[in-house]
Amino acid sequence: MSRSNHLRRRSTWIAGGFLVLIMLVSIVSLPWTLGHGASSSARFEAADPAHALEPPSWSSDRSLLGTDRLGRDVMARLLLGGGISLVVGLAAATTALLLGTTWGLTAAIAGGRVDSILMRIVDVLYGLPSILLVVLLAVAMDGFRDRVSIGEGGVPGMLLDLATLWIAIGAVSWLTLARVVRGQVLSLRTRPFIESARVVGVPIRLLVRRYYLPWIAGPVVACTALIVPMAMLSEAFLSFLGIGVQEPLPSWGNMAAAALSELNPVQSRWWLLLWPCLLIAATLIALTVLGESLRLAVDPRQRDAAV
């Protein structure tokens, strides 16, 4: 095994272990992050003003990563916010995977007028700024949320916040994937083994399952893996603007946005901005490294070239 392959395998294990650790800790700590203080969201809303803006401390009676202006435990909010950010990113990537793959396959296999219509729709949407589309969809969904939500900050409102981000980000994340899938399928249709299968009358469904999908799996996995960090970054940006995850529900994005007001020349509460930004950066890097490794592992052409 070459040195580059050894380093890539080690970086893959580190990236995968970090992501698994974040997900496991976020899930296992849910009873504490949701219920610590009281079942009525005291962890997020009421908190203890007497312990507000305490810096990180290893003392047993103080918060390990500090507290915010309302006295809420920063570590508890980071854990819950990490789970929310990962769920939004994975849900948006799954939506993009299903929609983009189906759209691209349909356009390439149908051909003719169907292909032209489907890809012109993609071209029109692709020509618009993606972040602007996400913001417009998020604002539209937020207006719907205001009409149907029951109680400020209640469970229905929180679920609609997450659904808003999922729909807004997933609705614009599939365009590149659709183009990639269509291009890969069109190139495969000229291969001798595909032409032979079509000549002998192999059904389209069998062609897709046995030939098209295995051969396009590498590029599809690579694009999908890159969609996850993009979706998480979009969620952080929307929450930073105040149209994503709403208080009292935390996310790394709205925690970083709230921390900006605490940075001033008089007294800088650095821990409020450092931890969410550090976790966002580390998670995005880990997802990118893992996605590249998955692409090499799934795509036989790339894997053989790397050996």
Cα-to-Cα separation, first versus last residue: 8 Å
Morphology = elongated
CATH class: Mainly Alpha
How much of the sequence is in beta strands? under 5%
Q: The CATH topology is what?
A: MetI-like fold
Radius of gyration: 23 Å
Give the H and E element order.
HHHHHHHHHHHH
Summed up, the helix count is 12
Task: Give the name of the CATH superfamily.
Answer: MetI-like
Give me the count of strands: 0
As for the number of domains, it is 1
Integer average pLDDT: 78
Largest sheet: none
CATH architecture: Orthogonal Bundle
Helix-residue proportion? over 70%
What class do helices, strands and sheet pairing give?
mainly alpha
- List low-confidence stretches: 36-46, 149-154
Write the layout of secondary structure elements.
Blueprint (H helix, E strand, L loop, with lengths): L2 H26 L1 H6 L38 H37 L1 H16 L2 H19 L6 H16 L4 H14 L3 H8 L4 H38 L10 H9 L10 H28 L1 H7 L1
3D structure, described in words:
- It is elongated, with a radius of gyration of 23 Å.
- By secondary structure, the protein is an all-alpha fold.
- Helices cover 73% and strands 0% of the residues.
- The chain has one domain (3-27, 72-306): MetI-like fold.
- The longest helix is centred in the C-terminal third of the chain and has 38 residues, at 204-241.
Task: Provide a quick synopsis of the model.
With 307 residues, the chain is an all-alpha fold. It has helices at 3-28, 30-35, 74-110, 112-127, 130-148, 155-170, 175-188, 192-199, 204-241, 252-260, 271-298, 300-306.
